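Students often ask what a holo structure prediction actually looks like on paper. The answer is less mysterious than it sounds. You provide the chain, you provide the ligand, and the output is a string of discrete structure tokens encoding the 3D arrangement of the protein together with alpha-D-galactopyranose.
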Amino acid sequence: MAVAQGVKTWRAPGRVNLIGEHTDYNQGFVLPCAIGLECRIEARPSSSGRLEAHSREMRDTAEWPAGQIPSLTPQRHWTDYVVGVAKEIVALGFPVRPMRLDIASTVPAGSGLSSSAALEVATALALLDGRSIGKLELARLCQRAERNFVGMPCGIMDQYASVFGESHAAILIDCRSTDHQVVRLPDGIEIVAVNTMVKHELGKSAYGQRVAECQAALAHFPARTSLRDVTFEELERAAPEIPETPLARAKHVILENHRVQAFLRASENADLSAMGRLFVESHRSLQHDYEVSCEELDFLVDQALTIDGVIGARMTGGGFGGCTVNLVDSKSVDEFQRAIAERYQSRFGIQPAVYLCQPSSGAGLLD
Ligand code: GLA
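The corresponding structure tokens follow.
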């Protein structure tokens, strides 16, 4: 294939989180893996003096004078991810060069598989155009773009997974130290994501609310800097003083951190039944204590657990729609896909998309 002069293609993957949900912004542990669904950006220099971005999925093009990026304001539009990243790059002292970005993504928007982080990371790489800021700073820059410009007070998991993903493995991220370790799952199991195809509006405001409720619970432990340091026993002792909702949120976060560690041990010992049990406990906690699940996600989890070869099932990502993640015996994957799709279709009249997730390497330049 002939490559036009100066054209570079950058890729950044989405992710599926195996366990450790809503723990990242509490300095806890998460276990995502980057997946084959990804955002690709073809970037070419432009003599127009402008930054131009075209999205294949949105069928939309936008452009801005490259010199005016610092003064742009959020538009509540897909372009906020591009502009937010561009502003953070300028803030680091790197001028954004005039260029045209052709964006194409296979990460479905609103699926809980981090289409936003994939877009942010691919955009950052394209705009940096080979100027290296280090992998951790790249992930942090993209997180800042989402927090400061898009207005979503997210943790570091999604951008980190997109940058540091490993082929054939998940990564256990310590969201305080921002170190990670590579975690290989036992042989013979597949990671399957099932998309509810719904994204409830409530999700946007509920995320910020959850962050605030965790802070409210933490305020009862003045000697602690995050819920990660509060033990379950301490929480129980303080429980009479803590209002019901922050108490339930803190319980989820503290026990979810334990579940990540227990999942790691179970995975090392190839103890599939413990892995499955922890998946289900995580889901029930997100459903009842953290209250970020929804009818469609609960249905998919409940049904999955009755299908042969399913080791565990839970919602993944922020919640209020998007995907479940399922651990399925490799031999049963075809039957699982067929059965879960048929049951969801007959209950909600919607055909769910099903993705077989192959852990993939982190973002970079495509050869
Ligand atoms: C979203 C956020 C992440 C994380 C998850 C929930 O994906 O972007 O930072 O908080 O929700 O685990």
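The chain is about 40% helix and 25% strand.
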